[in-house]
Amino acid sequence: MIEIEKLIDALDPKSQIKLGDIPEIDLYMDQVIQLFENNFKDTRRNEKDKLLTKTMINNYAKGKLFFPIKNKKYSKEHVILISLIYQLKGALSINDIKAALETLNEKLIQGNFDLGSYYEDVLSLQEAGSQAFKKGLQERAEEASSKAASEEDPYLEKLLLILSLANMSSLYRRAAEKLVDEISGSTNE
C-alpha cells in the first residue's frame, strides 16, 4: 500500500507568502527572490531547482504580466502579483496568465482595488483547497490500492495512482483554461 500520509506531508501545502511576510517597503529584485526562496523552498522537487530567477521576473515584466515597476523596486502589490504568477505557472501558459491578470493589473493601475484583501481571500481559498486535496488524495490512493490488490505489485499500484492524479490535474487545468477564456473574452472552439 502506498504511504499516502508520507506523501501528503512531503507536499506541505502551507508553503505560501502570506501578506504579513511582505515588507511594507519596496524591494529590489534580489530581495524579492530571497523572499520566494524563504517561503517556497520546501516546494522544490530537487535542491538545485530554482524557484524564481532574475530572468523569470524580467520575462514577466517584459510580457506585461504585472504593471511597471518604479526605480528598480517592487512594491507589495508587485510581490503579490509575482506570487500569483508563480502559483499559476504550474498549470497555465504565460499567455493565459497574462489574460487572467490583465484586468487585475488595470484595477491596480487605476488605484481603486485592495489587492491585499483580495490576496487574503486567495490564500484562504487555497487553504480550503489544500484540505480538500488531502482528502481526495487519500481517497484516490485507497481506490488505487483496492483496484491493484489483485496484482500484488507496488509498482502497478503507484502507476495507477499516478495516472489518476495526472487525469485530475488535466481536468483542473482545462477548467482553469476555460475560465481564462471566459474572462478574456476569447474562445478556442
What does this structure look like?
The protein has 189 residues and is mainly alpha-helical. The chain has one domain. The chain contains seven helices and no strands. The mean pLDDT is 90.
Please give the alpha-carbon distance between the first and last residues: 42 Å
Mean pLDDT comes to: 90
Determine the strand fraction and express it as a percent band. Answer: under 5%
What letter string, H or E per element, gives the SSE order? Answer: HHHHHHH
Roughly how much helix do the residues carry, as a percent range? 55-70%
Number of folding domains? 1
**Care to count the β-strands?**
0
Uncertain segments of ≥5 residues (pLDDT<50)? none
Sheet of most strands: none
What is the approximate shape? elongated
Gyration radius over CA: 19 Å
User: Structural class of the helix and strand makeup?
Assistant: mainly alpha
- Helical stretch tally: 7
InterPro entries: DUF1836
Organism: Mesobacillus zeae
Protein name: DUF1836 domain-containing protein
